[in-house]
Amino acid sequence: MNLRRLLNMAIPWGVLACILLAAACLQTPEGQPVSVYFLTWDNARFLAVQAIVTGLGALGMGLVLLSGGIDLSAAAAAALSGIVTALLFQNGASAPAALGAGVLTGGVIGLLNGSLTAMLRAPAWILTLCTLAAVRGAADWLGAAPLLLPEGAGGLAAWVAPLPAWMPLAPGVWIVLLWGVLLGWLWRGSVFGRHAAAIGSSETAARLCGVHVCRVKVCIYTLAGVCFGLAGVAQAATTGQASPANGAGLAVEWIAAAIIGGVQLGGGAGSVWGALLGGVVIAVLRNACQQAGWPVPLQEIILGGVLLAAVALDRPRHATQGQS
Amino acid sequence: MRLLAIGVTQKSGAARTLCGAQLALAAGELHALLGPDGAGKSAFVAILRGVQRPVRGLMLLEGRPYAPASPDEARRAGVWSAGDGASLAGALTVEENLSLGAEPARRGWIDRRSRRALACRALTELPGKGIPPWALVESLSLADRRLVEIARALLAAPKVLLVEDPWPYVPEVSAPFFAALRRLATRGTAILYATRSVEAARACCTRYTLLREGGTVASGRMHGDGQARGKRLGEALPATLEEEPLPRLPRRMGRALVQAGAGLTLHEGEILGLAGLDGLERFPVRFGRDPDAIAGVLPGLSVADNLTLPCLRRFSYFGLLSLELQDTAALDWMEKLHLRARSPHQNAGTLSAADRQKILLGRHLLGQANVLFVEAPTRGLAGPAKRQIHALLQAIAAEGRGIVLASPDPAELLALCDTIALLRPGPQPGQPVECRPAVQWTERELAAALLEPAPTDAKRSAL
Fold it and tell me: Which domains, ranges and CATH numbers included, belong to chain B?
């Protein structure tokens, strides 16, 4: 059993090692080894910034998956959050108000998802599919015209840029790490976290143990929504613009990140920190692909393959746990 | 020899369930696999039918090595199993079940007429009252379902049929079943009949193998010269294998805790037994308020989390858990429950069935629930593990809590309960037919009601 646990923890690191190895072997279109660009301090700092969005999304998706649910509307929620922020900036709102409204948007969508799953008791994937449609519609509507963030956007760009040189990691990266530590601690060390884990392991059993399943679910989805809202705002800040297309493909990326990080499909086993680590792995993968000069569609295909591999590994990884 | 097994050894966790068990099964014989609870009968049968693989041991089927990796493989090799109706699809009719997997068909379309003919041929061979081929299997009594399984075997005449009979022996009920087995044996099928009742084995089998603590201690003929062979192996066949019942803890019944809809009352310190086929799910007894039920173990969560989940707040300050307090309490209870876990942080999903059951009971000893629903708490357990669970249930009741115990095992109900209510399916499910103090029930009465529950079976008469 300890071997299995070791294997479980080793998988994200193993994937990371594979990517680095591949980067050392591959060549850029200019004929140089990818590692010349890839394994540099500047790229590491740039990568950390890229990992902000993936990490935040993986944290939120990890929370939902760990408690036995899934949120398919995550990427659309992130896109809408970014659009709300950009709209408010364009209309001259102050930075705290614009950012707060963006994050709040994510939280409200999460609250809606949580309330729906708690009240209707239908499978989460179908309910969040409904919200996905609605949220995407709203994003298309609000973001019909291209929304560029104003120059500087209240200093927002500086938070997610790998500048200045004396700072090892951008401020945004620190915020994500702090948020991850907080959520992980909440998961492992609070009554709320243990109740959520119990729901992920067996909802009926948790209900019969006196866990307020509905309340905990609403909180989990809301918390995840806040993560997605943060991810959306961060993405708008990094790209300097917000559009409905921002969310494309992100949900797959986040689910893959959480599962690579050791979150069991269907909930129960895994940790929030693992999900964050999975997010970093995905960001490294993206970055390596970019350095190798591979086009975005190819990256999407590779990502799908990675998710498939992670799902295939899910059963052997957690085999001893579902025997009851 | 049709089936030969030598030196079969099996482990469950650290404990050995089988240790050099052996068996010789001839074609066309009815062979009893005898042994008290926990002797390893089920483990042996599980290996023979491919559910488990032995750690060591040689098995030969008609002289060729036989090591099934799955029940499917065993079935393809000609080793079938029957006994509790579990191999039937409840939502299908008897005739559909009889031809399942070998449907008479023409170009993919089922030939209904020959299917009906096939079913009728098998069913008329069964003794006693006829089972209609169009009846839904789930509407049949357990005794009839067992017969349908034998009818299916009659159609195919497998090489070996493994029959597990966990129920107490009731001559009137078992007679048609034994007659059907005998008829199957005349077709050349070797039948292994696993039971703990020597009486039942005497009634139907010609030879026996006696297991004790995982090893074969005797084998021979049921009547005549076999006694001598049995003695040579070390032990003659005893008259009974029943164990001494657990001594009862003194309990005091207090005030009434809940009034059940069907005229049942549960008192403080009382264990109320529900005898019936599948326990509470099929017989929804309505209690006045939501009682705390024993839920499943949460796999993936630690032993400590599993034990303390209903009362986590006791181990936390302002919503933040104190892992130290939680671990201390868990360690304390692990010792009290004789839990075989390495640490409170071990994943509860990796524990043995007995230990998981102990966690469920321990969870509620720790908590403050004063009414517990317990359903088949020793299903699949035997020997010391079973006795530990029984002692735990008694301890819970002795604390003044009330327990509703649904169990398919009449012996268990009689050993533990103060009052036993017999529930029967029928027009109004959940209506207890009779409710009497436990001392006024006999094991045979309960077993007979279990196997032949329905004199007025609504579903069947409607068909």
Answer: 3-232 (3.40.50.300), 256-462 (3.40.50.300)
